[in-house]
Please model this.
Amino acid sequence: MKFTEEHEWLRVEDDVVVVGITTHASEQLGDVVFVELPEPGTEVTKDEEVCVIESVKAASDILAPIDGEIVEVNEALADDPGKVNEDPMGDAWFFKIKAADASQMDDYMDEAAYNDFIG
Amino acid sequence: MSELQRTPLFDLHQELGAKMVPFAGYEMPVQYALGVMKEHLHTRAAAGLFDVSHMGQVILRGESYEAVAEAFEALVPMDVLGLGEGRQRYGLFTNADGGIDDDLMFANRGDHLFVVVNAACKEDDIARMKAALEPSVAVEVITDRALVALQGPEAEAALARLAPSVAGMRFMDVATVEIAGADCWVSRSGYTGEDGYEISVPEAHAEALCRALLAMDEVEAIGLGARDSLRLEAGLCLYGNDIDASTSPIEGGLVWAIQKVRRAGGDREGGFPGAERVLREMAEGAPRKRVGLVPEGRAPMRAGTQIFAGAEGGEAVGVVTSGGFGPTFEGPVAMGYVTAGFAADGTNLFGEVRGKRMPVTVAKMPLVPANFKR
Model:
């Protein structure tokens, strides 16, 4: 698993990359009340805003961590945004992306480096 | 920026695991371990304890209550003279242009008037009262008492365990009550739409009182985050967001707070700052009006969201002044100002969120029914 400075996690699953937000991020956000997901089939480039999360406190964006095509989104989050707080590292993944260039993942942190990053 | 102040309950907040944020010059708890959503729901289901010690507490004393009330009526468009002893009322400091400089609570305490004002406005409010009322009325700022609110359907049962007499109080009654060995000034009121009490307690006794309440199963500590979503569902204004120096009481939907005796044709008509505009708008209507807004779907419409009459084009007809998610409403809720022609309940409008026009409907406030003990 890889981690970004934007507090996203990336997990390689067969030929796609599953993306979610970290437990730390979900705790900082507070109770999540709304998630807006991209359309499957959307081509995205790294650092493009692809999702909106609204918590009881504020709205934040999720950025595409790599270039590629969104192949699947987690529709369950639209109906039950609270899952993001309950299981951010598991059930509450946001989207699956087919990487255009898998080497973009190499720049991201491993778990130990991420834990150091959040202190 | 000057250093943040702390309330007498600061150490307790820290011990309870509160997340502290700067608010109106104070370090205040925005949430505790439960989180905003659960704190909100707990308050509506049982009882929540809020530290509101940052608010300003002021005693106005003169020759008699009547003398103080008469002087105070020059600052507010409310019936102060006619307020019964042991009763509290909602009030507004208006300015010369008929806008609202602050909202407040005032109570007839027999030989004096007790006033509670917003934290962010208190220095200005105190200066205003001193300038207008002294020397015939003494303005005494209370700095040695904390202020806490206990809110929710089980607030009565919880507080009555410490002081049985509070069960007999009605909505907006005020009394001095001995609670856990301290002389407290208690009112049956609040800012959540729920039944409950606001308690002014000597600072040396504040933590013990809170600990006694928090030890009860039904009571949880609640932060400013849930206080905001509770008052929003209840349709109550946040000064600075929903009403300010430019909004009149009529625009703000607060005409109910102006008693007949101060209105056109009343025995003490006018005689407060901005009376000309306030009385004129009461007769002719205001150009815009504060309304409740219910967005369709789940996306919250935050403060600043522009409101439009149509799905495309056109000028904005309004703006959201408070908006977020209503945990009890189970969906997004908002309030804001719209041009008078669009203010009727059920009017279908659009709010622009991230460049997209989303349907929103004008709705009667409160969005969650109030639960006061009348």
User: Anything to note?
Assistant: Chain A has one domain: 2-101. Chain A touches chain B through 15 residues (CB under 8 Å).
